[in-house]
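Bench log. Compound arrived from synthesis this morning; before running ITC I wanted a structural hypothesis for how beta-D-glucopyranose sits in the protein. Inputs:
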Amino acid sequence: MNTKLMPLATLITTITLLTACDSTVSKSSDQERAAKIWPKLDIKVKQSAAVEKQVSELLAEMTLEQKIAQMIQPEIRDMTVEDMRKYGFGSYLNGGGAFPNDNKHATPDDWVALAEKLYQASIDDSLDGSTIPTMWGTDAVHGHNNVIGATLFPHNIGLGAANNPDLIEAIANATAKEVLTTGIDWVFAPTVAVVRDDRWGRTYESYSEDPVIVKSYAASIVSGLQGGFGSNFLDEEHVISTVKHFVGDGGTEGGDDQGNNIASEQDLFDIHAQGYVGGLTAGAQSVMASFNSWNGDKVHGNQYLLTTVLKETMGFDGFVVGDWNGHGQVKGCDNASCPQAINAGLDIFMAPTTSWKPLFENTIKQVKQGIIPMSRIDDAVTRILRVKVRAGLFDKPSPIKRALAGKSEFVGHESHRAIARQAVQESLVLLKNNGKLLPLNPTQKILVAGDAAHNIGKQSGGWTITWQGTGNQNSDFPGGTSIYDGIKQEVEKAGGAIELSENGEYLVKPDVAVVVFGEEPYAEGNGDIDNLEYQRLNKTDLALLKKLIAQNIPVVSIFITGRPLWVNAEINASDAFVVAWLPGSEGVGVADVIVGSAKSKSEKAQVNLDFKGRLSFSWPSSPQQFDLNVHDKNYSPLFPYGYGLTYNSIDIVPSLNEVKEVETSQMSDLVLMKGTIKAPFKLSIGSGEKSQEMTTSVIENEHVHVRTIDKVIQEDARKITFKGQSMARVSIGHAFPTDLSGYYENNAVMTMAINVSKPIAQQTIKVAIGCNSECSQGLDLTAYVDSKKLNQWQTISIPLTCFKTSGSNTNKVFEPLVFSSKSAASLSFADVVLSVNENPKKTINCK
Ligand code: BGC
Ligand code: BGC
């Protein structure tokens, strides 16, 4: 076709027709492809003509600005009531550990007051001309977990072990009520990830490695949160739910949080999408897009999955919300601009931090420029309004006047705690009960030990008041009970004696010890690890168990954990071993099962409640069995899927293998810098809040100057100049910690290329490995540098063990490399690698 001679108008029509026609072809072939795998769901919530009419009338009146505002979701820490008045956002959220007025102890009234102010500002049309009510979304993922005093249910992994869908529905129901007391409309739950690699830090947010449980639970939890369509659907006792994270979050390579899922499309459906089949059929009104990629493409930008599969094929007619600036990770996007995500089918940008403002402006511009078609915007806003109408947001009174608002008696209500307690009872899995040590006879002398025995924060895990679940005290859980509290009640009732001692030192020699120990709380990528060994390099809990066993005290272990871990040695050092997962605020539920009815001291106790929990995750027989899943070809777990003893079991667990295989062959070098600083690591100067990331070729503060220089290729090295005013630091690190334990165990060395133009004075520049708070003392770098070699590159090698990092810190390293100096000095460096093959004979020594 000769386009040169065509009149402009014809040319444009031709091009439009060509593109339209092209996209029809690829669209229909995409649809055919999807239809082969993804079913049309029989969704319980049906479209109604009245709702659709109301939505289209609203839409017809809206300006572009009002529409985009519906699609932007800022976070309470980075927006004001005045922003809401001015823009009229369709929704907003509070992230994990974000509270009204930044006050951890905010009361339900404080929460409602904020909801009310933001609602009133949203329907105030004085500035934006809009009266559409906004809605508030929150992560109520195991109860209303950001609110002090709320009932905290076991995390999903424990609920999976309970395998009781009716109980799940009751939990969701109670959660909805507690959420509504704070004036909130919408929760970001359930997580329906089907975890395939237990190294993932979000394993505990998953009900099971098997999609069967996930599918049925998703339906129950959605019904419990939202109510039933045609009866109490989204009435004043129910909230909007979100099935998340669509799709494949539990199947990333290496169990890497936000990583890449390479499952075939069939597996994506059969394994990872079953929770959507359950949850969407039950009528979930929103879906959260996942941070992960599928075959290298971030789901936030994947039109095939978000539009063709989810909306067009499965028939989902609610909205898709993004995850925490997840759009910014799509290729070609950043937090402030991502037309790709909207075009792919994202309906709401979750836009925390201050990015919402440029994002709002850029999105408007992109619509005006035709980069985002108006039809896509209209579709997104239609979906958002449809959910708002269905949820009665246009009819319900303002937050403060709603039925449950401010009714603080519902927060941590006795009847909710009773449900949580039942969930704890049913989630416990008994792995070992040699000699029928359990149930405990409460008339004995009982020692309760271990650092999780009387620690409600630790037994509740991540997403507990704070995002990571760290920094909490027992006093932050009014109405809650620790595991010790529960045992104490039973023992005192029966006339036995109880002693609490974290380190196992007692005043009176006990008849039996209950030791409660396990993982420290974590959330998301902070919980990623690289193998399943418990307390690697730092077996303090094992030492405690052995100390008690050595005194002929029978030991019951209660293991707090977000995933199956390799605890063979700990199991060997226990007569009975119970996995309690992350039970939450009702620790008393543990005693209900492990303590029996009172009998005279010499008699065996009788069972009160039996163990009902069965493993919904296979238990590994080595630290390397992290991707162990039922139905695998060579399935050889220590305890299989579905395992769990009862008081009738006669099984004796024999002594387990405590020797782990050498892992060097399975480990690869960790490259921090080669050509460039390797993702996800970044180079920064300064520390804490003052830290600045190097994003251009020079970065400087008053203490230090860093610039890129060339070693072999362009900009493959960095030159540091310490100015000598006061302590300055330059680091390579990442927001999520890296587990370096394997590198320490395998005698890894840190190698790097160094170039100095004049000799560095001794004890000036220090090199260190940095954990959360500084964990290794700096080594004198000059000891490793040949000061006679000036203006040339030399390679230095430092065995990791020289850094003397304590074992408990090696699995949470935030900054694998830190240079610091108080004095003026300069050096250039490149090619930083933690190498496992450099030092096989351990000939390289510390200096
Ligand atoms: C998580 C989501 C959560 C969101 C809001 C994200 O990082 O992946 O599960 O809903 O933050 O807190
Ligand atoms: C925030 C949390 C949020 C999380 C989501 C954190 O940086 O502090 O509030 O839930 O990111 O990933």
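What the model suggests: The two ends are 75 Å apart (CA to CA). The chain is about 30% helix and 15% strand.
ITC booked for Thursday regardless.
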